């Protein structure tokens, strides 16, 4: 495996990348986060793709895991999901709760967070650039391709307390419905926002 790249961004601190990677990928037949994508793991490739477009990245892993096991660089901030089995909503809430009280100056200055999953290495750079350009403190920005909404979703900081209050397996879906008037849908020519890698064949089709 190639030596992990150390990521640094010249972008002024504004948008924080939050990657949820604590799931168990049962349909994949193994830990898809460790599956090879080029010379990296799938999780490392997704992280590297997002890194140039955000001020910093936080990756949520399972309890007891460390970033090095997935080839993540040392400068990638990691958090651990709760030990007991939880849904995506609880995992997301735990991460955002920690970000809200973080003493890291970059975390404190960010106006929004880009929420995405750990198996999305095929996003186009122009898509991420467009999303980040529309990020706002008081808006939720979501990409849309051929009428279908996808990821990443950009949550302005004013919505972070609501994210921190989520639980269960629904994720942020209920929050998006509750604040529908604040959701900005951006049309993009990028099927990568809809990528859902559930099987090895799904992964092979991207390489």
From TrEMBL:
InterPro entries: MobA-like_NTP_Trfase, Nucleotide-diphossugar_trans. CDD domains: GT_2_like_f (cd04182). Keywords: Magnesium, Nucleotidyltransferase, Transferase. One of its GO terms (molecular function) is nucleotidyltransferase activity. Gene3D superfamilies: Spore Coat Polysaccharide Biosynthesis Protein SpsA, Chain A. Residues 17-179 form the MobA-like NTP transferase domain. The keyword Transcription does not apply. PANTHER family: MOLYBDENUM COFACTOR CYTIDYLYLTRANSFERASE (PTHR43777). This is Molybdenum cofactor cytidylyltransferase.
């Amino acid at each position: 495996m190639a030596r992990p790249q150390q990521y640094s961004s010249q972008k002024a601190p504004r948008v924080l990348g939050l990657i949820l990677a604590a799931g168990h990928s049962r349909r994949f037949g193994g830990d898809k986060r460790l599956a090879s994508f080029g010379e990296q793991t799938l999780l490392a490739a997704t992280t590297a793709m997002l890194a140039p477009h955000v001020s910093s990245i936080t990756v949520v892993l399972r309890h007891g895991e460390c970033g090095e096991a997935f080839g993540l660089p040392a400068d990638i901030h990691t958090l651990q999901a709760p030990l007991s089995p939880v849904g995506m909503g609880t995992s997301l809430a735990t991460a955002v709760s920690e970000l809200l009280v973080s003493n890291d100056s970059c975390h404190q200055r960010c106006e929004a967070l880009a929420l995405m999953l750990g198996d999305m290495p095929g996003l186009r750079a122009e898509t991420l650039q467009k999303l980040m350009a529309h990020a706002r403190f008081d808006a939720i920005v979501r990409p849309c391709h051929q009428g279908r909404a996808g990821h990443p979703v950009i949550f302005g900081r004013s919505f972070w307390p609501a994210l921190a209050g989520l639980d269960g397996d629904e994720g942020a879906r209920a929050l998006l419905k509750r604040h529908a008037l604040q959701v900005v849908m951006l049309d993009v020519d990028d099927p990568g926002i809809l990528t859902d890698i559930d099987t090895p064949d799904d992964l092979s089709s991207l390489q």
